[in-house]
Structures are given as structure tokens and as C-alpha cells.
Design a protein that fits this description.
Elements lengths: L1 E11 L4 H17 L6 E6 L12 E7 L2 H8 L2 H17 E11 L6
Antiparallel strand pairs: 1-3, 1-4, 2-3
Helix pairs in contact: 1-3
């Protein structure tokens, strides 16, 4: 299985924390759930991190069964729409950038 993470690096604009969370959960996460072939979508806001986890105000993760499925999803129309929505959310509520990182997790051979 392959998990692709979007790590939001920076900080939520002062006084915008609840609006940021609402925009992510109501506008962005539903699009991520539409990515073709995904098996799981997870969202972790900064205050929900495990102790010792990286200092990111938001981490989004989508898990796919394999790299080919992930690459197909990244070329989909849903990805284009989610990029636009993400840009809007960042511009309105966030000072920083998004770093995408792909991690291979639980790769089984049978």
C-alpha cells in the first residue's frame, strides 16, 4: 500500500483556526475522498498529533493499494479540482506552503 501525504508547513492565520478547519473538512476532504482508487483518507490537525510528531498544522493522507493506482489518481480531474480548492484555502487561511511526500507503507509480497 502507498500513502501520499500533504504536509502543510507554516501557520494558520491569526484568528482563522476554526474557519481553516471547517474549510479543510467541508471543502477539501470530500474531494480527497473522490480520488480514484483510494482506500483511506486521514486528516490530522496540529493539536491532534501524537507526541513527538512533526510540527505541521495540518497533515492530509490518502492511501492507495499500489503506486499505479496512486499515479492514476494524481492525473485525475479530481486532483485538479482539489489543487484549486487547496490554493483557495491556503490563500484565505494559511501562511505557508504545502509539501507533498510519498511514503511506501505495508508493501506485501505474496
Amino acid at each position: 500500500m502507498i500513502t501520499r501525504f500533504a504536509l502543510f508547513e507554516g501557520s494558520v492565520k491569526p484568528g482563522k483556526t476554526e474557519e481553516f478547519r471547517t474549510a479543510v473538512t467541508d471543502r477539501l476532504v470530500p474531494l480527497w475522498r473522490q480520488f480514484p482508487g483510494n482506500s483511506d483518507v486521514r486528516v490530522m490537525f496540529g493539536e491532534e498529533r501524537d507526541e513527538g510528531a512533526p510540527e505541521f498544522p495540518l497533515i492530509l493522507a490518502i492511501t492507495y493499494p499500489d503506486r499505479d493506482t496512486m499515479e492514476g489518481a494524481l492525473g485525475s480531474d479530481v486532483r485538479s479540482r482539489s489543487r484549486d480548492v487547496t490554493g483557495d484555502i491556503v490563500a484565505e487561511f494559511f501562511d505557508g506552503r504545502i509539501h507533498h511526500h510519498v511514503t511506501q507503507a505495508n508493501q506485501y509480497e505474496g
